[in-house]
Design brief:
49% strand, two-stranded antiparallel ribbon, three-stranded antiparallel beta sheet, 5 strands, single chain, mainly beta
Length: 68
């Protein structure tokens, strides 16, 4: 699982993950994961987002992209 927070009061922000198996290749893909839950645990302006990422590969690198 990969968990991050995101603002819930700004609909202009878009959040998504990118995954790669090799940092040297610089090839990232926006697939291979599933948003498995949203929790308003922080209250206020932030929600906690849980992403399920299968561990079928020996290594996987993850980056969170936030765009406006």
């Amino acid at each position: 699982e990969y968990v991050h927070v995101q603002r819930n009061d700004d609909t202009n922000l878009v959040y998504y993950l990118e995954l790669t198996e090799d940092l040297l290749s610089n090839v990232w893909t926006n697939s291979g994961y599933l948003v498995s839950g949203t929790n308003a645990a922080y209250g206020g302006d932030f929600d906690e987002i849980t992403n399920a990422i299968p561990s079928v590969d020996d290594q996987t690198f993850i980056r969170l992209i936030i765009e406006n």
